[in-house]
Amino acid sequence: MSRPTHFLISLIATFALVAGGVNESHAKSPVDFARDIAPVLERHCIRCHQPANAKSELSLATFADLAGNGYVVPGEPNGSHLLDVVTAAIGEEPLMPKEGPPLSESDVELLRRWIAEGANWPDEIVVREKPKADRTWWSLQPLAVTEPPSEAIPSAWDKNPIDRFIYLQLAANKLEPNPRADRRTLLRRMTYDITGLPPTPEEADAFLHDDAPEAYERLVDRLLASPHYGEHWGRHWLDVTRFGESTGFEINHLVENAWPFRDYVIRSFNDDKPFDRFVIEHLAGDAVGPGDAAIEVGLTFLVCGPVDIVGNADAAQAAQIRADAMDEMIRATSEAFLGLTIGCARCHDHKFDPVSQQDYYRLFATFTGVRHGDRLVGPQDQLRERKQKLAQLEAQKKQVLDEKSAAEKSAGEGFDSQKFDMQLAELEQQIKGLPAFPSLRVGNFEQPVRPQHVFLGGDAGRSGETAAPASISTLGEVAEPYALSDDAPEQLRRLALARWIVAADNPLTSRVLANRLWHYHFGTGIVATTSDFGYMGEKPTHPQLLDWLASRLHAEGWRLKPVHKLIVMSETYQQSSAYRAEAAQVDANARLLWRFPPRRLAAEEIRDTILLLAGRLEDRGGGPGFQLYQYSRDNVATYTPLESFGPETYRRSVYHQNARASRIDLLTDFDAPDCAFSVSRRIPTSTPSQALALMNHSFTMSMAESLAARLLTEAGDDDVPAQVNLAFELAFGREPASAEAAAALALAEQYGVRAFCRALLNSSELIYVN
Amino acid sequence: MHFNNILARRVREQVLSRRGFLSNAFSGLAGIGLASLLNDELSAASDVPAARGLPHFLAKAKRVLQIFCPGGASHIDLWDHKPALEKHHGQPLPGEEGIVTFQGKNGSLMKSPWPFARAGQSGKMISRLLPHVARHVDDIAFIHSMQSKTNTHGPGCVFMNTGTIFEGFPSTGAWVGYALGSENQNLPAYVAIPDIRGEPPNGKANWSNGFLPAQHQAVVMAAQQPLRNVALPTGVSPDEERATRGFLRMLNERHAAENPGSSELQARINAYELAARMQLSGPEVLNLAAETSATHQLYKTDDPNPLKAAYARNCLLARRLLEQGVRYVNLYCASRASGVDGLLNWDAHKTLQADYDRHCPIFDEPTAALLTDLKQRGLLQETLVLWTTEFGRMPTHQEGVTGRDHNPDGFTCWMMGAGVKGGTTIGATDEFGRRAEVDPVTVWDYYATALKLLGLDHTRLTYYHNGLDRRLTDVHGNVLNELLNN
After folding, report:
1. Which of A254, A411, B224, B396 is the most exposed place for a label (fewest CB within 10 A)?
2. Interface touch A768/B278, C-beta < 8 Å
3. CB B135 within 8 Å of CB B121
4. Is the model's pLDDT at B486 over the cut of 50?
């Protein structure tokens, strides 16, 4: 019973026009369902009584729904139960609606007349609950062709188009930007921003002594070319993709072969892989790189969320658990790429955004062939050959074993096993010699055998209309839609979705991506709710700039590095973070960017910084992750935080094997997420547990010791003042003030340099960036 | 959904996301909940009525003790007396003969291995397994018609604690801490006390802050497990500690002064002060030796059964925490699923009698002592006590064994203390205890009621996350007014 959606929309628009507009002029003319009745049902009834929900098994979406229950008997108002429930007995409230105000007398009278006149309800009209935002919502419009505004502005802010957008909006609010930050500050800001690490003294020296006009640009280029860029920006993306390395839920076992996805993300960022390609690999890597582990590994995206693998003999519960796993995939996909909370349409049409329940189940049908688990990845023919050979060898092995035990039985004590053992060893050798293919957590794919149905109320046991794999209606005619048949090949379903997501006419994907870049550079996105571009999200502070940046992504062939460069080359980015009370009165959070917003480092940056400062950070990327917990498992897993961290853990935090529902000293304390679902932004907190961990965990003590040893080596054994100076230089990139130097010296002389280092590792200046 | 909250939420979001959260879980002063956050932080920025005025109404309860028996504690062997089970023992469950549930096929109806007896003035029938807790029935309001959404432990425990079966959502304690903050200067607002046998199913997700800011997660502490990272590092003397902190404070204050306009920097300095106080108060509250021997005798902290003694010590710790003004204490009796069903928790699949003969003596006397102690110290008047489990068990035995499978369709939870009408029972399962039949109660109803007692309207306690103003009670929840004293 799917209907042309454009008709529905125009109908809804009509309802909107007449909603509340039931007036006297209509009173004499015959009741018109679309004009008079549908709006009443829509306002008062449909939220609870719709096919998706059907409270008390009653829907008011179509006439068949209503008449089937005897609620309306055409021509007989007195025999129609509908009127009873909306009419109050004297002194009482009417039974319905349960939630919301009663119907007005004129509404009830309209219903009565409509029934008396024969209850005419045109077949094509389906009453639907209207979301708060319709398809005219800002984020669903095509990218506006925007040119940077051309008004005259100061020449320094005239060159980079970003600055023109920002400056003019500041001016419109009677604000001025800050002057440029000093070079030391810029160096530290940008090095952290692009690599997640502080500049080394050598890097600082080189930049601060480079007087060439293009020194800053050279710095930008160097940093964007650094392999640390991928480690830092890859970590951002791992948040968005809710990448976790344990199954979650009750079992929560570690997943030992998910890390290749982490390396793939890092590599892709470093290689500046076009983002459209990246998305396609996430959803359909098996289609665009079949058998190529370096590409298929992108599919880990589909299956790296939490999944309940306990198993359930109760079929209804098992079906619901499976639907939950699909739901997790749908939410992650729609939030990460589209900035849409499609998950809200699981049980009913989205209450806020124009996403229908049918849309949700189109995605369900798209993913329904995906199974969580591992798969050997390699060329199909080679895998097949390997499988056959392996089966042969295993069969031979079994035969030899059988022969051996038979011979042993008949020979008794004098049995000589040598002949058999040699054969077995030979077979083992051959099995080992088979070509090896990596077993990756990339899921398995099965061709769905039945059409997908809408699950009424989200209940996997209650099927509604069918839903075929197709694009969602939300973007209407903005992005070219596609619709596959019920029996479309499984892989094609995912590929079609991926292509639709990155299609040039899909305005959401590039807007969402451009906004994420902005968010990580400036601490807040142009849209603050980076994964929600719907009604419940925030509206953009600079909509034209957002569209301009999104268009740049398209123009750059979806490569991110040119856009990063544009952003960090801007005056907007280079201005100082100095606080001005009068500007703060207008714009306290600097959303208009009258200053560069200072930020606290993220958990991983804090830990990496401490390691680097102590001279212990091992620059070794890739491979299986390290663990800051003790992992024990029987049929469920337990993660116990470690009391001390050995040198094998002295790698960048992005290489930590992040298990769900585990609590990691420092990382959890400083707001590293659990990745139970797509994390669009982290909320920095200041808590005593941070202070306790950073003051007292043995990690801080051993790092303080290492730093002290480093100072000793580099500044001279018995020259404590030189050690203090060096420490300030390394930690803060500045010399100590005289009061600081005196206090540091006193502490170091009485309790050793280690005590001074411990304090330094706890300082605010170390973990805040201006 | 309350649209008038949206503006309040937006303002709140800005504070939370851009300026960091000037709060922490650990003090009444800076450990502000939403109430004071919105008053102090946003008074200038916001004139939204919904952004002020928490609690929403007069609170009966100031704090909560939640006792959680993970594993699916059997309602029909503990609280919900079913004479029909005795009568029809060995006969098939009518209409559901051989039904397949979580672990597989069910056999016939199985009576409880233990008799029930009347208790208290109210004459409530309680299993003989729980003679000590039975003495408190006149203060307890039983809900016999609880229902869960899932028959699986992990999601079930998380559902019972957070109102959703998925991970990543805030637990009730986190919500309450977020709304009301702490009453204490030196201790966290929310403490989880895991059992000595280990964490409950789904582990730390049970006391997670979910999407609420990190300071709302429970701090884990137990008699067997001191507060994490409170001990001074080896080799650091108190003098060195004092000197180091003094120097650090100077550095941080200079830095804060040079960077005006950021309340985070001052919040961080405060957090270090609070951490220093916790280094004293943490061990202090854990120092059970400060209690009289009569108290130890009451709780049975030196019981020869080491599991009972360990749980008793945690009961005593719970009282000390509540006494100090900790807002929400989550006390666990038993732990996760193990290779052997029912060994480490209440999950009696195969050997019900042996399992509960082991678990009930651990639970009964120390729990009863805790309730007695709260009452005799006058704490019960302002403390809401919740007893919960993730689901109940089938009235049948599992095929081939003498244990019961999971049953999310009907089970028992209870409440007592502040504002709760004692000696009452609401709802009922059918004659065998298979399904909630009279006035079914959801987890959301249960917490809507608990929040009401804390002065909170569950429909108005919201936090924006991934597209929605989220609530502990999702889009559900009806306050169980019959349970409330007027």
Report:
1. A411
2. no
3. no
4. yes
Residue B28 predicted with pLDDT over 70: no
pLDDT at B254 over 50: yes
Nearest residue of chain A to residue B464 (CA atoms): A536
ipTM > 0.95 (yes/no): no
Are the Cβ atoms of B17 and A324 closer than 8 angstroms?
A: no
Residue with tokens 């796993």: A325
- pLDDT(B44) > 50: no
The pairing of strands B116-119 and B124-127 is: antiparallel
CA dihedral A120→A123→A125→A126, nearest 10 degrees, is 110
Tokens of B438: 């009279």
* CB–CB contact B275 A314 (8 Å): no
Q: What is the DSSP string of A520-550?
A: HHHSS-SSSSTT--STTSPPPSSHHHHHHHH
**A231 vs chain B: nearest CA distance in angstroms?**
24
The answer to whether residues B311 and B382 touch, using CB atoms and an 8 Å cutoff, is: no
3-state secondary structure at position B140: strand
Per DSSP bridges, beta strands B436-438 and B428-429 are antiparallel
Find the CB nearest A528 among B17, B252, B256: B17
The minimal CB distance from B230 to the residues A321, A351, A696 is found for: A696
**Which pLDDT score is estimated for B23?**
33
Mutate to test the interface with B, among A132, A240, A695, A701 (most CBs of B within 10 A): A695
Pinpoint the alpha helices (H) of B93-237.
153-162, 172-180
Do the strands B63-68 and A768-769 form a parallel or antiparallel pair, or are they unpaired? unpaired
Interface test with B, best of A764, A765, A767, A770 (most B CBs within 10 A): A764
Cα three-residue angle A663-B288-A669, rounded to 5 degrees = 15
Provide the residue type at B324 as one letter.
Q
Residue whose C-alpha is closest to residue A671's, from B445, B3, B211, B476: B211
> Could you tell me which of A247, A82, A47, A161 has the C-alpha nearest to residue A572?
A161
Task: Count other Cβ atoms within 10 Å, centred on residue A258.
Answer: 24
User: Side chain identity at B86, as an amino acid letter?
Assistant: E
Residues of chain A short of pLDDT 50, as ranges, are 1-26
DSSP track, A710-735: HHHHHH-TT-HHHHHHHHHHHHHSSP
Q: How many alpha carbons fall within 13 Å on the CB side of residue A594? A: 20
Q: What single letter denotes the amino acid at residue A413?
A: E
Q: In this model, does residue B15 exceed pLDDT 80?
A: no
- Strands (DSSP E) contained in A284-396 are 370-371, 375-376
Round to whole Å and give the CA distance between A726 and A734: 9
B239 Cβ partners below 8 Å, 6+ apart?
A751
- Among partner residues B103, B227, B269, which is closest to A313 by beta-carbon distance? B103
Q: Cα(A250)–Cα(B336) distance, rounded to whole angstroms? A: 9
Contact B268 A763 (CB under 8 A): no
Q: What's the pLDDT at A151?
A: 81
Three-state DSSP class for B473?
coil
Enter the tokens of residue B241.
């500690």
Residues of A in contact with B268 (CB under 8 A): 686, 764
C-alpha closest to that of A327 among A356, A281, A367: A367
Subunit contact A765:B251, Cβ cutoff 8 A: yes
